[in-house]
User: What shape does this take?
Amino acid sequence: MKIILDNCVNWRLAQFFKRYEARHVRDLGWQDLSNGKLLAAAEQSGFQVLITVDKNMRHQQNLNEFSINLVTLDSASIRLVDLIPLVAGAETEIAALESKNVTGANISIRI
Assistant: This one.
């Protein structure tokens, strides 16, 4: 599965995903896209997972309009050191989505 990291996620987190290709929105020049436009652009570009730390995105967007999976990292802060421990859990959840061919899921990852 192709993963895109939201603008509010530290761009360096992409390197910690070992099982999946992870890119940051700024790599694609999408850092100025709002949440709905970002979800649409990511989905149209073949990304199956959007990872964010924005706990409100799932409430602000009508996720039923998208087949892309939303994974929210629920950490103490958005600092890289606090996000890295969540990567293994995110990869496990993404693998489960992939094995079941799930689309449009909304998952929160915590320690």
